[in-house]
Amino acid sequence: MALRRLGEALSSIPPLQSALLLLLSLLAAIHLAKLLLRPRRLEPPGPFPWPLIGNAAQLGSAPHLTFARLARTYGDVFQLRLGSRPVVVLNGERAIRGALVRQGAAFAGRPRFPSFQLVSGGRSLAFGGYSELWKLQRRLAHSTVRAFSTGSPAPRRLLEQHLLGEARALVALLVRGSAGGAFRDPSRSLVVAVANVMSALCFGRRYSHGDAEFLRLVGRNEQFGRTLNRDFYGFVRGKFLQRRGRLRPGAAPRDMLDAFISLQQEQPRLPLEHVPATVTDIFGASQDTLSTALQWLIIFLIRYPKVQVKMQEEVDRIVGRDRLPCAEDQPHLPYVMAFLYESMRFSSFVPVTIPHATTVDTSIMGYLIPKDTVIFINQWSVNHDPEKWSNPEDFDPTRFLDENGFINKDLTSNVMIFSLGKRRCIGEELSKMQLFLFTSILVHQCNFIANPNEDSKMDFTYGLTIKPNALTINFQMKLGKMPSLPLTFQSISSLTTKRLVYEHNGILKCIS
Which amino acids does the record list as binding heme (predicted)? Predict the structure, then answer.
């Protein structure tokens, strides 16, 4: 009787729908059979993937939190499927360091996503595949960034003066916008300020905060990843084409773009078109991550007013009121540095790195990982590991200070925000220097007041970086007039006449 009713029910379904139902049932059965019959002993475990979509629907709006939750069930190495593509997720310092440091070359690839091939005309350092050409491109880029930031004294002073001038302009803009007790969203001003520092380094000039072209390119940095391969790359390439014909052989580079063109002439194995692509990467990645970090730093200052006061007291005690903080003050401002490291740890504003891919068949923690497997690196899991950090969900800068009040350098090295290994961010030291100077100058000059009509919850939007949702803040100038710059931009122009030369070991040096 039951079989007859089932037959009658099936006979009432139109032939086309019956065929589709049969096909879907067959696909599901084949998919399940593959999962059950294939050898799984050496594959990473993971949640059941649904036909066609895999585990994509499980990731939610905060994948880094989903990854950490799944790691509690399946371990620090587990496997997902996004559509039909297998993806291995690494959590925790042991798994991540084991892959990126101990097997750096094996995990240094990038997935062959079509979108990655479009970035900067397929010549991107950040998104490009691991190859001999890529290693040369990275070596030249790293030496150039180091030369203009933390290398020789002259370019380092030049960077500092660019940043001091931009920080002064930023303070004036924020305070002016808060006149009459007004509350304002500082995010766009922070984006333009950081972009101006990078513009000065890369192209030798800054832009007005009201410049229409510059604002169109960088004023909405949450869209940077979507416009990188069009508008911004075109902007940089235009400057490159202007410079290429004008730069005389042997002339002293005035900025990073000049330096890259000169290096390419010394190293013709790097195609000329890789120069604008590399500068685009350096500019774009820096302005996006740094402006996001500064937004988090300011939110922490209003969220934790006692921390704000303690930072201001330390800066006033060390720097005084007759000058602005400078790079030489950094060793004497341990609480400011502790605040920066705790902000990076707590926010983990780069929670998951750009996806990696394996370049060979390899293994990690006993699991076999085939060549060309997509790898997700969950940095957030390291920064919030309860076995590494006491009360990781509490914001506490003092965790980075030792019993004598000095920075605990062993502990700061545990913060994972700039990745590790072959793909470690080449601008890490440059970024830390900029964050220190911007933050110390802001707390030296301003009081930050939260809007009492807004919820202080730290909600965010997930992307390449975690961006805090907009909050309005009142910026009040502290007592006293803002000190003048130690040097004017005109007086440091002579620093740019120093010549950067390429050494055979791939290092840029500054000579008189």
Answer: 425
DSSP H stretches of helix in 304-400: 305-319, 334-347, 379-383
Contact 163, 434 (CB under 8 A): yes
Return the closest-CA partner of residue 220 out of 41, 12, 463, 423: 463
Provide the residue range defining the domain that includes 399: 132-511
Output the CA angle 200-206-212, nearest 5 degrees.
135
Tell me if 294 is assigned to some domain: yes
Burial class for 368, CB neighbours closer than 10 Å (0-12, 13-18, 19+): middle
Per the CB < 8 A criterion, the answer to whether 147 and 508 are in contact is: yes
Classify residue 72: in a domain, yes or no: no
Q: At 362, phi and psi to the nearest 5?
A: -150, -170
SS3 at position 123: coil
The residues near 246 (Cβ < 8 Å, ≥ 6 apart) are: none
Q: 474 pairs with which residues across the strands?
A: 449
The whole-number pLDDT of residue 474 equals 96
Q: Is residue 220 included in any domain, yes or no?
A: yes
**What backbone phi and psi angles, to 5 degrees, belong to 88?**
-100, 130
- Report the number of distinct structural domains present in the chain: 1
Contacts of 275 (CB under 8 A, 6+ apart): 240, 257, 260, 261, 264
Residue 486 pLDDT: 52
CATH of the domain at 498: 1.10.630.10
- How far apart CA 211 and CA 199 sit, in angstroms, is 13
Q: How many CB atoms lie within 10 A of CB 22?
A: 11
Q: What is the pLDDT of residues 273-301, one digit of tens each?
A: 899 999 999 988 888 899 999 999 999 99
Give me the phi and psi of 54, to 5 degrees please. Answer: 65, -130
Number of C-alpha atoms within 13 angstroms, CB side, residue 159?
27
Task: Give pLDDT, residue 507.
Answer: 37
At 342, list the tokens.
């705790």
50-58 contacts, C-beta under 8 A, 24 or more apart: 51/24, 51/27, 52/83, 52/84, 53/83, 54/80, 54/81, 54/82, 54/83, 54/84, 54/85, 55/80, 55/81, 55/82, 56/82, 56/83
Give the chain's residues under pLDDT 70: 1-41, 150-151, 219-230, 480-481, 484-512
Judge whether 425 is annotated as a binding position: yes
Q: What is the pLDDT of residue 488?
A: 40
Residue 213: both structure tokens together: 């072209």
Question: Across 240-385, where does the E strand assignment appear?
Answer: 356-357, 362-364, 367-369, 374-378
Where does residue 463 rank: exposed (0-12), middle (13-18), buried (19+ CB within 10 A)? middle
Q: For helices 428-445 and 334-347, give the axis angle rounded to 10 degrees.
A: 120
Residue 333 lies in a domain: yes
Q: Do the Cβ atoms of 224 and 232 come closer than 8 Å?
A: yes
